[in-house]
Known about the structure:
There is one protein chain. The protein is an alpha/beta fold. The chain contains four helices and six strands; from the N terminus they run E-E-E-E-H-E-H-E-H-H. The chain has helices at residues 63-73, 92-98, 111-120, 141-147; strands at residues 2-4, 15-17, 32-35, 51-56, 80-85, 102-104. It has a six-stranded mixed sheet with strand order 1-2-6-5-4-3, with helices on one face. Strand 5, helix 2 (92-98) and strand 6 form a beta-alpha-beta unit. The chain is globular, with a radius of gyration of 16 Å. It starts with a strand and ends with a helix. The relative contact order is 0.20.
Amino acid sequence: MTTTTAAASAVAPLRLLAHADHTAAPQDDASVLPLANDADPLEVPLDGVARIDLVFPKFTDGRAYSQAFLLRRRRGFAGEIRATGDVLIDQLVQMARTGFSSAVLKEGVDAADAQRQFDRFHGFYQGDAVHTAPHFATPNKADTATTA
Length: 148
């Protein structure tokens, strides 16, 4: 079962995949790049790459967050960045904010529980990898409606 979150506009949509729905790309598929945690995302060739799989080997290892951020902001990668491995639901909002576009949920995790994480957070003061402008620099729709 695949679920796409459509949370508040401050959080980018994150496609949630059940553990059973994720298959690793065949080794000869150059469009999918499994990136090791110790690889420098600024140095890997991205020609022809449509998806990058970043691994969370355990929930305390956050290197994949940095890799996703660098891929989005510095490399301008517009393809899919997928979180795999030890993905917990309390990490999903931060994954979306650092540039991930999809996440493979751990086996046994309910997608509805994961969706509730996005429903809890309606906005953020600081910018992120997807919405770079901080909250104070974003026009308030209510303010512009009254001045027009």
